[in-house]
Design brief:
This protein has a five-stranded mixed β-sheet with strand order 2-1-3-4-5. The protein is an alpha/beta fold. It has a single domain (2-164), classed as Maf protein (Alpha-Beta Complex), CATH 3.90.950. Helices cover 44% and strands 19% of the residues. The chain is built from six helices and five strands; from the N terminus they run αβαβαααβββα. Helix 1 (2-11) runs parallel beside helix 6 (138-164).
């Protein structure tokens, strides 16, 4: 995460997150690094669907695809990016190997992670991945998600360097 924060600072880029199943784990990992205030604009933990909707995720997306879908993660990422004006918005939703009584659909070990880049509506400039969780303990699964996010974000920033060359 230190390397990621350093890259964001070097590039003058900012990031905001809308997290569900990670409970703010991504933003917590970022803010554990000195100078994180230079890159973090805002973070929202939106466990309840109603707050995803209040933050800008269209209810129709959740109704059509479910809260546990890549479509919802992408909308979370783009909504938080628009809300804050940050360079990158991050959306993460899924289940950490636990049945959700309010939302019974979807696999219990899949997490959807999306990163939305400001001013890049072309899908090739927005990044997403599905993570199949490997662990039984919530903390370990959150750590897995944070690591996937960190590596994906570093790849995005390093790709930006190669595109400028």
């Amino acid at each position: 995460m230190e390397e990621l924060v350093k890259l964001l600072i070097e590039k003058g880029k900012t990031i905001s997150t809308m997290e569900s199943c990670t409970g703010g784990g991504i933003v917590n990992a970022i803010t554990n690094i000195p100078n994180a205030s230079k890159v973090i604009k805002f973070s929202a933990v939106t466990y309840a669907n109603e707050y995803k909707i209040k933050m800008g995720v269209p209810k129709e997306i959740i109704d059509k695809y479910t809260v546990y879908s890549m479509e919802t993660a992408i909308e979370m990422a783009s909504a938080i990016q628009r809300f804050t004006g940050s360079d990158y918005g991050v959306g993460v939703t899924g289940k950490l190997k636990k049945i959700d009584e309010e939302n019974l659909y979807g696999e219990d070990d899949l997490v959807y992670l999306a990163i939305y880049e400001k001013n890049k509506e072309n899908e090739s400039n927005n990044y997403s991945t599905i993570i199949r969780l490997n662990y039984e303990k919530r903390e370990d699964n959150k750590e897995q998600i944070i690591n996937v996010f960190c590596n994906l974000m570093k790849d995005i920033l390093n790709k930006e360097n190669k595109n400028k060359e």
